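Protocol step 4 of 6: structure prediction from sequence.
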Amino acid sequence: MDYKILRLKKGKEESLDRYHPWVFSGALADPLPEGLEEGDVVKVVTADRSRIVGVGHFQIGSIAVRMLDFADTEITPDFFRTRLEQALRLRQALGLAREDNDAYRLVHGEGDFLPGLVVDIYGPTAVLQAHSPGMHFARQIIARQIVGLPGLGVRNVYYKSETTLPYKAHLDPQNDYIVGGFETAVATENSLKFNIDWLRGQKTGFFLDQRDNRSLLQHYARGRKVLNMFCYTGGFSVYALRGDAVEVHSVDSSEKAVRLTDANVELNFPGCSRHRSYAEDAFKFLDNMAQDAYDLIILDPPAFAKHRSALRNALRGYQKLNFKAFEKIAPGGILFTFSCSQAVSREQFRLAVFSAAAQSGRKVRILHQLTQPADHPVNIYHPEGEYLKGLVLYVE
């Protein structure tokens, strides 16, 4: 294949030689080759053109190339099939594909050496999400390879990238089935059933990255009054109910999310009287709730900072939110608190929570430091892939 060549400035190959999968636009030495279009596969070469550093997908923006391989490799359907087989073998080794668990992430972008691609499995359906023009243009090839993977059991591939592709690319993607069609919207996670709304829901329809943390919460829920803030589809609430919580209240500003939560509670615990939901603003709910009303609180807000420009405001938001929880939680209470903002480091999040604890004057101990599960792996050469941070705290 005759790929166009992008030449690096002198010394800019060093990060690529350490296998970091991004080439920033400022690292390129020359004007872009004539005829180069977004999503094209390009070869990246050293400043003196003596060596091909690798191949990747080109795009306009601060990240100019997402590297697919650090060799002179031809990007064919077989290339995608090999990477998908490697990703599946990891999930099989993790024991995620089971009769009591058919919901998990098959591809986690850079963490599975397929930058710009996310694939989530919900029973017989895979939801494919492109975060780069290159993966958008490869979607048909990738979908065919997914349904052909032996042992996966996927018959349908839904493409959902309307909100994830760079707006500058002007790609106008349409969310739709690439392969197959609608079969079922119910998936199983650790024997619990969940309605998955990949048509209109956030992300691919469910937050798979909290699976292990939901299981941990179940361990702490027995006999407690639980408040699940930013509940979305009620994952933590359902696990808390299975953990024999005395009472579980779910709060989200979205009425649609609250309806989904109620539906998931009913799916697993028909006629459950221990659960109530509220469509209210989180900060307002925390302000108005009674002191000591809950002794287990979950704070799992949406990303407060999607870009570094919003970092300062995000850290203030995390501090304010956690202070309100520290202020109101009952003595001996447990707080599960999270940040899914990639722009917020583990240390910055911990400092924001520490500041909130100090402001509240409560004695607080760290019981667990949490992250994303193993089906959301972090490429060791791409630490930016570690986005989910969490703490489990005991509050005197």
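Step 5 (inspection) to follow. The chain has a mean pLDDT of 95.
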